[in-house]
């Protein structure tokens, strides 16, 4: 290993989106052949940092960034990801950007094929060159053996196991002659443990050949085992930059999450009288793309606010979506004594469950319709409210008047800023749209309310209003609430218990005042070890 | 200023051009000695004659199935009703409403099957609707030959079997709606009261339906299927209902058309009808996933106005019949414009 | 041969190749225009107007390898030929004399009059452009008069070029 | 169980071909046509139609579905022929001349079509179809009003008697079957237009070669996944436009070959059904919206035209009405297109479901933690060992 020579350095990099600071003065270096573990919660700034490095148009479009990025000591400012690729930086993404119908070779060499010029080049341009398949195979093979794994160069990607797809992605990046720096964003997310081990070995091998890497992962034990150095980001700030030797997973977890318990927790010392078990979930699985739930069991008591947290993509969002019947699901879910039929949204609603979707614009709202419609629709369809029966109930017409009354009521209650109840939903701001979604859910007077990412992408004032509305609904109407959120602090401030989800399973359930590092460990996939520890104790 | 530009952008340049073109035609008519009053009567008549086809587009657009290129399925149901009515020798209002009554069960059945099919191919509805429509028409071509109709006014004289390509409804229910309470003003202008009343009746029925619980759900499905599903609505069911309604309106539409036109046109005649209706509602300001009664009215009027006025005015002015070519360019250009707008494809 | 589009030499070469190809396409079109040009050859066996030659009594005339035409005094027949250079074979029926002559037709004239007696006698010009007294009216006149030809459907409402309305291009050959 | 399932799969994958074959075989007997006659017809029709059908291949490779916009190329070819007739250019030079005139027109048309289809991604087919209607209007305007008035036409024989506009039927005497007769191979009762077949063969070789070029590979990539191709730096829109341009140019040549065999052209209708017949043929041959091969083309042309030849006669003999056969074959044509579109849409949904099957269900209840994870792990380990 000839580490040490500085290859890439971030020098006082800051970035804000419309005044919202997401990176504060981040500085660190990456040496040749060094593997750097970059960790942090969702929203800690990892993604933004990488976007800056790759010159994504989004960054330039929102006012650029401050500070400098240097390669070999010289400042670089890439205009597009292709520039970054040309400078020798490769990126392996979370989602596979492979073509399933192509072979390993074809994918590794996509748009970089070996070509033999043909006579037609002079007539119709360079793209008339024919492919030099044997040479392509040779080059692919070279990349594969550099990676040190066994991949069949002629196999179709669609027929590969997941792990091989990941290797193919990496092989594609290292096939570029110039690639010196590799950014791996959650490369092990889809891999099984044994596959992940193979990958980590391969990465170490690559590092020995002089390729530097930025390894982003939430599986802290992997970070510890692969990285030479660890950089921890929290709320856009670099909180730790340390060699990995001697660092434990627990340390990292507390650096990641560690902040003071919010002060408003103190007043929550109120006595909470919770009722009997209201919702019980056993062995739930949900097939929600990107948020797969594998096997979850938990129960919620009457009058409780139950929080579900965890990192993005681990399956927390799948829980409400599966129970409410929006995605294929299985397992046993009971509401009180009654079995909840899955895959049936209507039945779920009729049983008295409500849902505020995380996908506000996609699922939560009728963007092209009025607020009246948005708020009253579900109640109208499920409870036959806001209808005028005609001809002895044969025809039920919309009762625009009572719809308006309802809407005005909620506009007042939730302080929805709009010109009139007839305004179209798409014309409102994000925070107000979220309030409309809440109003829609409240309008059906649910006994159990699922709220999914209620504060995502809305400003501070609106956040507080939304959380207050939820708390009020819980205290005044006794609504049981299951709240799913990526914001751990938010969950800890409002919930009675917080479950942390990892890889489609519940890693653990903690009281809100538990140590932040406990939450951090669960998020870092330390469930098994921890559980065993607990069992042992 | 900004507002005006926004309005223009929403409405779309093609529509504005078409509108201005039509106005110019009316202005130019007296110059080339085309009578405005008779033209207007013509436009009204054809507006009523074709209005229901345009109306039939509304439910499917609203439920997110897109433009009903397979309207011919509904037209076939109407043709079955019409021929049955003539076969039984029903006359006058009995004949017309009998035909309507006979065609409804067919329309419901066909619409139900057609809707089921379209539910299986979400996202590809329009191409498939078109070919299902074509195939249906061709299938019925065979049926028109072999179905055992016997009324001599309908079957080929020389062969003694098989229905004629055009069957007159004279003596059965010719202009039964047109002449009902018709008001004649001057020599050339007749107001087809009954025809327009009937169209207005069906329009308001659909309007009321869209205000019911089911109609609301249907609109929500078209507006955002995910929202509707999360609210417990069965998307497939709503879509099927919309297809059935569209098919029924298509059936009623062809009956209205026939009584005014005077003939039942069989065989390949229904093939081209959906395209005119699609073009008309788009000219009226609808998009691939949003349509209103206003779009129907404006569209049917503009499109039929164009069809009536271009031949007479352009021909008199240029001494040549360019109307046909103009019609092809305008109607298909309009559909093309709508298809290339950016929009959310329902999945 | 190789090189990418960014290389100025390649660029220049490609410019030339494109220009040559374009010229070749135009040249080919011109070539086809000439070699494929169809001419109608009216073959006369009449006395010349200026009295220079007399019609031959009975003669077999064949153009290139087409079937021979039998022409008696005062007859006229026609042959359709392609291109400019043609061989005319004349056989006088009475005595069996055979004459082979090559003729060259002018470009741009489609109707040409060939005088057999002149050709046989070697008098020039044996081929003259034919100027008809009236435009020859073809057998198809009037077919397109009505506006209905754009639309086989008939009534205005059904005429959006109905896809199935026209018979398929292949006639249903029995 | 698995045999049954694989048979079921085989059937759904080839449903169109199987159903079609069945109907056709059933119709051959009642048609009363001799085998010799049928074979000769097939030989002729293969020469006449294959080129047009082959023109559909590239847009399918590029993921743009069935190119209903090929009608644009057919119109360009017809304009080429009109000029060849106008200048009375005969024989093979006449055909080549028509193709030379048609090429720039169809390149332009193809470009227009490609640009429009890029604006309607995901709705290419219906858009292409309507575009063909729209351009048909413009074609009529040009041919019916501009030709003879603004565009000089020197042959009065092809003009309408009013002095401008082309007649609605043009006689192609000058070029009639000149390509077919260039090298007519006779053997027994059969004659084979070898020159036409050679042209088709050259096109097949071109397609095979083209798939091996960089452009062909890019087209495949775009067809499989536009987003990935775009990320890899392949110019997606441009590649799609090129696919359509090539298809349009080929369609114009195809239409010229088709019409030289027919011997006359219905100026305003000949192109109406070009795309219908070509699309029906390739689908009958077993192609789908996403996948097509050269064998699909030839199988399709033979099968479709076999039915077209026998069905009117069969209709006549069975139902005493030739019209029934006539309608029947059109019904079958449209039906086949509808059916294969439906099957394709339905099948791709099934595939998507099957692809996600692995993520569903907790395989083994209580031990769930390891249960689901195990399956891929085994695969990974196995792969590593090889």
Topology:
The complex is a heterotetramer of chains A (537), B (347), C (174) and D (386).
Chain A: E1 6-17, E2 20-31, E3 35-39, H1 46-53, H2 57-61, E4 66-71, E5 74-75, H3 81-86, E6 89-92, H4 104-108, E7 115-116, H5 121-124, E8 130-131, H6 133-147, H7 162-175, E9 181-185, H8 193-208, E10 212-216, H9 220-226, E11 229-234, E12 237-243, H10 249-257, E13 277-286, E14 293-301, E15 305-310, H11 318-323, E16 329-335, E17 338-339, H12 345-350, E18 353-356, H13 360-364, H14 371-383, E19 387-390, E20 395-398, H15 400-413, H16 430-443, E21 448-452, H17 460-477, E22 480-484, H18 488-494, E23 497-502, E24 505-510, H19 516-523, H20 527-536
Parallel strand pairs in A: 3-10, 3-11, 6-9, 9-10, 15-22, 15-23, 18-21, 21-22
Antiparallel strand pairs in A: 1-2, 1-4, 4-5, 7-8, 11-12, 13-14, 13-16, 16-17, 19-20, 23-24
Chain B: H1 2-11, H2 13-28, H3 36-55, H4 57-62, H5 72-87, H6 92-120, H7 125-146, E1 166-168, E2 183-185, E3 189-191, H8 193-211, H9 213-223, H10 225-230, H11 235-261, E4 263-265, H12 273-283, H13 293-318, H14 323-339
Antiparallel strand pairs in B: 1-4, 2-3
Chain C: H1 8-35, E1 38-45, E2 58-63, E3 69-72, E4 75-82, E5 85-92, E6 98-104, E7 111-115, H2 116-121, E8 127-129
Parallel strand pairs in C: 1-7
Antiparallel strand pairs in C: 1-4, 2-3, 2-5, 5-6, 7-8
């Amino acid at each position: 290993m000839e580490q040490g020579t500085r290859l890439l350095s971030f020098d006082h990099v800051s970035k804000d989106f419309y005044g919202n600071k997401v990176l504060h003065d981040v500085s660190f270096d990456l040496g040749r052949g060094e593997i750097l573990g970059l960790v942090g919660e969702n929203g800690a700034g990892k993604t933004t940092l990488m976007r800056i490095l790759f010159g994504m148009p989004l960054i330039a479009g929102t006012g650029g960034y401050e500070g400098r990025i240097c390669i070999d000591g010289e400042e670089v400012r890439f205009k597009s990801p292709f520039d970054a690729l040309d400078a020798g930086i490769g990126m392996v993404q979370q989602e596979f950007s492979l073509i399933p119908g192509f072979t390993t070779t074809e994918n590794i060499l996509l748009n970089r094929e070996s070509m033999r010029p043909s006579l037609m080049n002079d007539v119709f341009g360079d793209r008339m060159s024919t492919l030099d398949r044997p040479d392509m195979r040779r080059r692919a093979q070279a990349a594969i053996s550099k990676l040190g794994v066994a991949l069949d160069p002629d196999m179709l990607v669609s027929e590969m196991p997941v792990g091989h797809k990941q290797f193919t992605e990496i092989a594609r990046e290292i096939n570029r002659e110039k690639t010196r720096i590799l950014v791996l964003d959650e490369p092990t997310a889809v891999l099984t443990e044994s596959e992940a081990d193979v990958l980590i070995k391969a990465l170490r091998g690559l590092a020995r050949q002089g390729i530097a890497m930025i390894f982003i992962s939430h599986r802290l034990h992997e970070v510890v085992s692969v990285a030479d150095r660890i950089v921890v980001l929290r709320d856009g700030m670099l909180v730790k930059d340390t060699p990995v030797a001697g660092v434990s997973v627990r340390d990292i977890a507390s650096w990641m999450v560690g902040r003071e318990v919010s002060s408003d927790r103190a007043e929550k010392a109120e006595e909470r009288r919770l009722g009997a078990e209201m919702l019980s979930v056993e062995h739930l699985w949900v097939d929600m793309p990107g948020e797969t739930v594998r096997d979850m069991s938990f129960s919620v008591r009457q009058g409780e606010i139950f929080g579900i947290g965890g990192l993005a993509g681990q399956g927390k969002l799948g829980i409400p979506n599966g129970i409410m019947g929006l995605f294929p699901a299985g397992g046993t879910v009971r509401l009180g004594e009654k079995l909840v039929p899955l895959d049936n949204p209507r039945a779920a609603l009729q049983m008295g469950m409500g849902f505020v979707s995380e996908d506000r614009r996609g699922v939560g709202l009728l963007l092209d319709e009025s607020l009246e419609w948005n708020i009253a629709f579900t109640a109208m369809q499920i409870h036959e409210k806001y209808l005028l029966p005609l001809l002895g109930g044969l025809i039920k017409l919309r009762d625009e008047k009572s719809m308006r009354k309802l809407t005005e009521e909620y506009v007042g209650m939730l302080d929805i800023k709009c010109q009139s109840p007839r305004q179209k939903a798409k014309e409102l701001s994000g925070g107000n749209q979220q309030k409309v979604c809440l109003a829609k859910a409240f309008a059906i007077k649910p006994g159990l309310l699922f709220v999914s990412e209620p504060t995502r992408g809305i400003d501070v004032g609106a956040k507080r209003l939304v959380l207050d509305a939820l708390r009020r609904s819980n205290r005044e109407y006794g609504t049981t609430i299951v709240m799913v959120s990526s914001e751990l602090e938010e969950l800890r401030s409002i919930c009675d218990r917080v479950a942390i989800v990892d890889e489609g399973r519940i890693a653990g359930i903690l009281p809100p005042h538990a140590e932040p590092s406990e939450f951090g460990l669960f998020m870092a996939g330390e469930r098994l070890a921890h559980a065993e520890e607990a069992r042992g104790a | 200023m900004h507002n005006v530009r926004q309005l223009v952008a929403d409405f779309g340049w093609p529509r504005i051009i078409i509108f201005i073109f039509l106005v110019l035609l009316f202005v130019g008519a007296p110059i080339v000695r085309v009578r405005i009053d008779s033209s207007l009567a013509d436009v009204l008549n054809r507006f009523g004659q074709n209005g229901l086809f345009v109306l039939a587009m509304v439910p499917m657009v609203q439920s997110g199935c897109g433009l009903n290129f397979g309207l011919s399925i509904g037209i076939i149901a109407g043709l079955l009703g019409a021929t049955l009515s003539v076969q039984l020798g029903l006359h006058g209002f009995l004949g017309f409403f009998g035909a309507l009554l006979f065609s409804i069960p067919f329309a419901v059945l066909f619409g139900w099957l057609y809707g089921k099919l379209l539910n299986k191919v979400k996202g590809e509805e329009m191409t498939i609707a078109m070919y299902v429509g074509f195939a249906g028409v061709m299938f019925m071509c065979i049926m028109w030959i072999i179905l055992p109709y016997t009324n001599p006014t309908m079957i080929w004289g020389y062969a003694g079997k098989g229905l004629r390509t055009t069957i007159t409804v004279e003596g059965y229910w010719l202009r039964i709606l047109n002449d009902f309470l018709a008001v004649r003003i001057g020599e050339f202008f007749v107001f087809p009261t009954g025809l327009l009343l009937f169209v207005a009746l069906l329009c308001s029925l659909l309007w009321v339906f869209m205000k019911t619980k089911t109609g609301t759900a249907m609109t929500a499905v078209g507006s955002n299927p995910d929202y509707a599903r999360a609210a417990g609505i069965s998307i497939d069911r709503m879509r099927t209902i919309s297809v059935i309604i569209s098919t029924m309106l298509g059936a009623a539409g062809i009956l209205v058309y026939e009584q005014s036109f005077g003939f039942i046109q069989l065989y390949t005649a229904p093939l081209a009808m959906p395209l005119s209706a699609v073009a008309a509602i788009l000219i009226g300001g609808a998009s691939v996933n949003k349509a209103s009664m206003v779009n129907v009215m404006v569209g049917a009027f503009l499109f039929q106005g164009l069809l009536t006025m271009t031949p007479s005015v352009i021909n008199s002015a240029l001494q040549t019949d360019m109307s046909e070519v103009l019609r092809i360019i305008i109607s298909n250009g309009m559909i093309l414009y709508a298809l290339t707008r950016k929009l959310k494809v329902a999945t | 041969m190789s090189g990418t589009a960014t290389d100025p030499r390649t660029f220049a070469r490609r410019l030339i190749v494109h220009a040559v190809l374009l010229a070749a396409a135009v040249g080919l079109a011109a070539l086809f225009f000439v070699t494929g040009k169809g001419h109608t050859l009216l073959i006369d066996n009449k006395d010349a107007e200026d009295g220079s030659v007399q019609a031959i009594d009975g003669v077999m005339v064949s153009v290139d390898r087409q079937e021979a035409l039998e022409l008696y005094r005062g007859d006229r027949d026609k042959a359709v030929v392609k291109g400019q250079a043609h061989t005319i074979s004349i056989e006088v029926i009475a005595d069996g004399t055979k004459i082979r002559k090559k003729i060259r037709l002018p470009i741009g004239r489609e109707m040409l009059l060939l005088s057999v007696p002149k050709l046989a006698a070697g008098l020039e010009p044996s081929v003259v452009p034919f100027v008809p007294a009236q435009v020859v009216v073809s057998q198809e006149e009037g077919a397109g008069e009505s506006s209905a030809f754009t639309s086989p459907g008939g009534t205005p409402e059904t005429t959006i070029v109905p896809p199935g309305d026209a018979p398929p291009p292949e006639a249903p050959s029995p | 169980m698995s045999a049954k399932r694989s048979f079921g799969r085989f059937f759904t994958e080839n449903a169109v071909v199987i159903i079609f074959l069945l109907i056709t075989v059933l119709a051959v007997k009642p048609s009363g046509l001799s085998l010799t006659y049928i074979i000769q017809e097939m030989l002729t029709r293969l020469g006449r139609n294959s080129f047009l059908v082959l023109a559909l291949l590239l847009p399918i490779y590029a993921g743009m579905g069935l190119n209903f916009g090929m009608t644009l190329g057919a119109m360009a070819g017809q304009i080429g022929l009109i000029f060849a007739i106008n200048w009375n250019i005969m024989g093979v030079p006449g055909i080549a001349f028509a193709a030379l005139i048609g090429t720039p027109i169809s390149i332009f048309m193809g470009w227009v079509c490609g640009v429009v289809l890029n604006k309607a991604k995901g709705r290419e087919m219906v858009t292409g179809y309507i575009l063909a209607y729209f351009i048909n209007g413009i074609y009529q305007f040009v041919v019916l009003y501009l030709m003879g008035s603004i565009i000089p036409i020197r042959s009065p024989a092809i003009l309408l008697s009013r002095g401008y506009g082309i007649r609605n039927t043009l006689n192609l005497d000058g070029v009639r079957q000149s390509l077919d007769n260039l090298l007519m191979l006779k053997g027994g009762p059969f004659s084979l237009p070898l020159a036409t077949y050679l042209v088709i063969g050259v096109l097949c070789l071109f397609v095979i070669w083209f798939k091996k070029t960089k452009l062909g590979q890019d087209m495949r990539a775009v067809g499989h996944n536009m987003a990935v191709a775009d990320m890899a730096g392949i110019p997606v829109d441009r590649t799609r436009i090129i696919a359509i341009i090539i298809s349009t140019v080929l369609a114009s040549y195809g239409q010229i070959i088709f019409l030289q065999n027919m011997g006359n052209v219905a100026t305003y209708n000949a192109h109406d059904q070009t795309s219908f017949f070509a699309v029906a043929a390739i689908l009958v041959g077993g192609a789908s919206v996403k996948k097509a091969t050269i064998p699909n083309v030839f199988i399709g042309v033979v099968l479709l035209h076999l039915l077209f030849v026998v069905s009117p006669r069969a209709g006549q003999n069975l139902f005493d009405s030739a019209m029934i056969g006539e309608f029947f074959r059109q019904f079958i044509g449209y039906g086949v297109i509808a059916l294969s579109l439906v099957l394709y849409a339905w099948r791709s949904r099934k595939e998507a479901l099957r692809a996600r099957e692995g993520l569903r269900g907790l395989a083994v209840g209580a031990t769930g933690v390891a249960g689901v994870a195990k399956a891929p792990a085994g695969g990974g380990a196995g792969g590593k060992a090889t």
